[in-house]
TrEMBL record:
Superkingdom to which the source organism belongs: Bacteria
One Pfam family this sequence matches: DAO
TM ranges: none
Protein name per UniProt: FAD-binding oxidoreductase
Enzyme class: oxidoreductase
Length: 480
């Protein structure tokens, strides 16, 4: 990313008369902000208290109540259900898994990591089945995932990635390169290669999270919104685990932390996961004559093979929503969801490189959200029986499906069951915390800049069709 974006660089971007920057997301603008549920009325006692009403927290509550209806479960949320990454993401329900396969294999063996990948594929089916069974209309279309390469270095990397994944749980039918005349057609300008995986679906993030919250509340789970959590306390002697809020303290046999990008705001968790910003823009509806040129009839989710990759979808009302990883979240910065102008410009340039025909279609909304990134970029699920505290998260951008798997796994851990899910290698995975500020912010910003520069060098073929050495330096610094 360029360090500065001038007014001249911003001027070509067409903006709708309804353009907005910030708020929660376009997804909530589309359906309207939900009516807030009541806050915690005072001190309370439950069997399980979940902190955070995003996908992870809600799926955990859902599966606990389905497994044991008499269980007393509460979900405590600082804002409203879906306020965080669950209501702001790109709507990719996919089997992608962000963690290092080698790291998990070191502790559990390669076969265990392959089992985790196969379960992630099944998780896409699980989310589809549950939303259908529970009557949650989330604009879900199972069109699969399309990945494109737009230069020689990306093509080399995409081919190598497919070969790598096929050693770690993907069979040829699960991901493969496509012929140029593949149907359904999706015309991305400059594409020199593309790959397809059937294990993905497009989803409307806000419809999914609000529908899930409605179902969970209907099962008898108490969801308390506008209730900020100050501290999570472990079991101490006879004192049970507790969730301390400004409205009172909730005691429970088990407390599950499901706070993802907001984890560092909790007392004692500042260096646990770094909050990383992802940003998105969405266009006005694209005219039908342009869709004739683009194709995209299959409604696949779409990504590229760049280091600073983008992710996109064709929405139910025929817009293009596209997002990408922004600079690290600056310590102390606000949470208004706005996107810096340079990130809007970068996303618009990515959009028009892929689809030049939409260059005149106005951008209607830009927004950002925080995701949680562990020091080794490996997500985890954990329940400590001694302290009574558990957590799940650190999905590093691949959380829509992983949160469902985490919820089912936490159900088994809370209920003391030993199952195939509790034996997966991300269960109990722990890593040291991030470096203190401002070191972690500065370091992640350097990594971000190196990846961006590597992409520019590759697009200009300065690296003769091979992955830029700068990307390798960035990966070593990030310890990914």
């Amino acid at each position: 990313m360029r360090p500065f974006t001038t007014a001249a660089q911003m001027r070509p971007i067409p903006r709708s008369s309804r353009f907005a920057n910030g708020g929660v997301s376009f997804w909530f603008r589309d359906i309207g902000l939900p009516e807030r549920r009541p806050s915690l009325p005072g001190a309370a006692d439950y069997d399980v208290c979940v902190v955070g009403a995003g996908y992870t927290g809600l799926w955990t509550a859902y599966y606990l109540k389905k497994a044991q209806p008499d269980l007393r479960v509460a979900v405590v949320e600082r804002e409203f259900a879906g306020f965080g990454a669950s209501g702001r993401n790109g709507g990719w329900l996919s089997a992608e898994f962000s963690g290092s396969r080698e790291r998990y294999a070191q502790s559990h063996g390669k076969s265990s990591m392959i089992a985790l990948q196969r379960v992630m594929m099944e998780t896409v089916n699980e989310v589809v089945s549950v939303t259908e069974a529970e009557g949650v209309d989330a604009d879900l279309v199972r069109g699969g995932m399309r990945l494109v390469a737009t230069n020689a270095a990306q093509q080399e990397r995409l081919t190598a990635e497919i070969e790598y994944l096929q050693e770690w749980g993907y069979w040829p039918d699960d991901i493969h390169l496509l012929a140029h005349d593949h149907e359904p057609r999706l015309s991305v300008a400059g594409a020199v290669a593309s790959a397809h995986s059937p294990h993905a679906a497009r989803v409307h993030p806000a419809k999914l999270v609000t529908g899930l919250a409605r179902v969970v509340a209907g099962l008898g789970v108490d969801i308390f919104e506008d209730t900020a959590v100050e501290e999570i306390r472990p079991r101490r002697g006879a004192a049970r685990p507790a969730v301390v809020t400004g409205h009172g303290t909730v005691t429970a046999d088990h407390v599950v932390r499901a706070t993802e990008g907001f984890t560092s705001a909790l007392r004692g968790q500042r260096r646990e996961w770094i909050p990383m910003r992802s940003s998105m823009i969405v266009t006005e509806p694209v005219p039908a004559e342009l869709w004739e040129k683009i194709g995209w009839e299959g409604r696949e989710v779409l990504g590229d093979a760049a280091h600073a990759y983008v992710y996109a979808q064709r929405t139910a009302d025929d817009r293009i929503a596209i997002g990408g990883r922004g600079v690290p979240h600056r310590p102390g910065a606000g949470q208004d969801g706005s996107t810096p102008p340079q990130e809007i410009a970068d996303l618009w340039r990515a959009l028009t490189r892929m689809f030049p025909d939409v260059a005149d279609v106005p951008v209607e909304h830009a927004w950002s959200g925080l995701l949680g990134v562990p020091r080794d970029w490996c997500p985890s699920v954990h329940m400590d029986t001694g302290s009574g505290l558990g957590w799940a998260g650190g999905y590093a951008g691949s959380g829509v499906a992983a949160a469902n798997l985490a919820g089912r796994t936490l159900r088994d851990l809370v209920l003391g069951r030993r199952t195939e899910l509790t034996r997966l290698p991300w269960v109990g995975h722990q890593v040291r915390g991030w470096e203190p500020e401002p070191l972690r912010w500065a370091g992640t910003r350097v990594v971000h800049g190196l990846y961006r520069t590597a992409d520019r060098r590759e697009s200009r073929t300065e690296d003769k069709g091979h992955t830029s050495r700068l990307a390798g330096i960035a990966t070593r610094i990030a310890r990914r």
